Amino acid sequence: MSNSIVSINQLSKTFHTNKDQVQALRNINLDIQEGEFITVIGPSGCGKSTLLKIIAGLDLDYQGEFLLEGKNVKGPGIDKGYIFQEPRLFPWLNVERNIAADLNIRDPKVREKVDELINLVKLTGFEKSYPRELSGGMAQRVAIARALLRNPKVLLLDEPFGALDAFTRAHMQEVLLDIWKKNKTTMIFVTHDIDEAVFLGNRIVILKPRPGSIQDIVPVVLPIPRKKTSESFQEIRLQVVNEFEKIEALQSAF
Ligand SMILES: Nc1ncnc2c1ncn2[C@@H]1O[C@H](COP(=O)(O)OP(=O)(O)OP(=O)(O)O)[C@@H](O)[C@H]1O
Ligand SMILES: [Mg+2]
C-alpha cells in the first residue's frame, strides 16, 4: 500500500474542439510522496499546465486515475493551492488583506498566521502596501503566502517565476526553498528552465509532447543549499539536457 499524496495512474486527456481533437496527455503514471518537491519540465505544449489543472481539480474530464491522499478529487479546493505565472492579486486590497482574502484579518488566529507568513515570504514592512506598489517578485510572494495560509496539501505552481528577471528569479527560488524546508508542503512546480528544475526539485519529471507523456524522471540527490556552478549540479543538468536532445530528435523525425 503506497502512502503517496498524489497518485496518478494511466492518466490521459484529450481536448475536443470544433475542428479536431488534441491528445494533451497519454498514459501518465506518477506517484508523489508527501513533502516532495517535484519539478515538471518540457517543451511548450507538452501538457504541463493540463496536468497541473487536473491535479488542482480544475479539470475533471480525463481518463485514467488521479487520487489525492487516496481519494478522488471532485473539484478545486483550498487543499490545493495554485500559483499562476502572474500573481492575480486583488488590486483594491493591501498585502495583508490580499493574503487573508476571504478570511477575517481581525480574527487573532488569522492575524497571527498572516504575520507569520509575511515574515516567511520576506515582506515585513509591506503589510499595508497595495499591489501597484509592489515589484513582480513581491507580488508573487503575496500570492504564495495567500495560498500557504490555507495550509494546502499540495502547492501547484505553473511557471510562477517566468515573468521575473534572472536576479529576482534566483532570489525567489531561494525564498521558495526556504518555505519548503520550514513548511514541508508538497510542491509541484512547472518550469521551462532547466537550472530552475534542478535547483528546486528532488525529482524532475521531464515531459515530451505529442501527446504529452513522461520522457524520464530524474532524481536530484543534492544537498540544499545547492550551488548552480557545482560539478554535481552540472552533471544532473546535463542529464536533463540529454533527455531534451532525445525529445528534439524525436520531434525532427516527424
Ligand atoms: N482548452 C483547450 N482546448 C483545446 N486544446 C487545449 C486546451 N488547453 C490546452 N490545449 C492543448 O493541449 C496541449 C497541452 O497544452 P498545455 O497548456 O498543457 O501545454 P504546456 O506544456 O503547459 O505549454 P506551455 O509551456 O506553453 O505553457 C497543447 O497542444 C494545447 O494546444
Ligand atoms: Mg503551460
UniProtKB/TrEMBL annotation:
What keywords are annotated for this sequence in UniProt? ATP-binding, Nucleotide-binding, Translocase, Transport
The residue ranges of the ABC transporter domain are: 6-234
Note whether Coiled coil occurs among the keywords: no
Q: Give the InterPro entries listed for this entry.
A: AAA+_ATPase, ABC_transporter-like_ATP-bd, ABC_transporter-like_CS, ABC_transporter_ATP-bind, P-loop_NTPase
Q: Does the keyword Cytoplasm apply?
A: no
Q: Which Gene Ontology molecular function entries are recorded, alphabetically?
A: ATP binding; ATP hydrolysis activity
Write down the SUPFAM superfamilies for this protein, in alphabetical order.
Answer: P-loop containing nucleoside triphosphate hydrolases
**PANTHER family per the record?**
ALIPHATIC SULFONATES IMPORT ATP-BINDING PROTEIN SSUB, TAURINE IMPORT ATP-BINDING PROTEIN-RELATED
**Would you tell me the protein name for this molecule?**
ABC transporter ATP-binding protein
Tell me the classification of the organism that encodes this protein.
Bacteria, Bacillati, Bacillota, Bacilli, Bacillales
